[in-house]
Design a protein that fits this description.
This protein has about 170 residues and is of the alpha/beta class. It is about 30% helix and about 25% strand.
Length: about 170
Amino acid sequence: MEDKDWQIKVQDSNLMFFRTSIVNQGVNSRSDDLILASFRKFVRKVGSNLNFLDLGSGSGYVVCYAAYLGLKSHGIEINSDFHQMAQEEVKKAIQTNLIKEVKLIEGDFFKLNFDFSQVDIFYHYQTHPEEKILDFFSKKAKKGAYLFFVKIGLNKPVESLPGVKLIQGSE
């Protein structure tokens, strides 16, 4: 298994797409550790004290981790059970002084009336086709925003997407 950080510049704008791929591996604690390590490295590069939005925040561990890293953290989750779980995780993290605040919204981020123009970093753990997320990002994100996209497996080479150039990240 390879753990690489990728940065994709959408050629018609200043939007940046940052992806980490966990190839041919199911979700487990090792892949979660690699994702969080890549995310921490990414936040060090772009800076904290930015507005962060997890598109599909699930049980809330990433929004809590983002807040812990100093980001102004928000999450949107469509599943009410996961949304409730995330609320409980945020409450625990605040009570133990790990974080100060996380804002959670229950809903479908594709249909939600939300001001995405204030978001500096979008995060998405692949639950939707890559093309759909890139389209959403290119329409909703402000110039200079980032998308940290966790792609499980490589079912289509990203270089084949229209208007996308693949550049390997460095550090």
